[in-house]
Amino acid sequence: MAVRPESRTIPYAWYANPATLRTEQEHVFARSWQYVAHTGQLPESGSFVATRAVHVPVLVVRARDGGLRGLVNVCRHRGSLVCEGEGRRETLQCPYHAWTYDLDGSLRSAPRADREPGFDREAHSLLPVAVDTWGPFVFVNPDPDAAPLAEALGELPALLDAGGVDVETLRFHHRTGADYAANWKVCAENYLECYHCQVAHPGFSKVVDVSEDAYRLEENGLVASQYGPVKGARGGGAGSFDPSGAVERGQFHFLFPNTTVNVMPGHPNVSIGPVVPTGAETTHRFLDYFFAAGTPADWIEDLLAFDDQVGAEDRVLVERVQRGVGSGALEGGVLVASERLIAHFQRLLVDALAS
Ligand code: FES
Ligand code: FE
Question: CA 13 to CA 11: how far, in whole Å?
Answer without folding.
Answer: 5
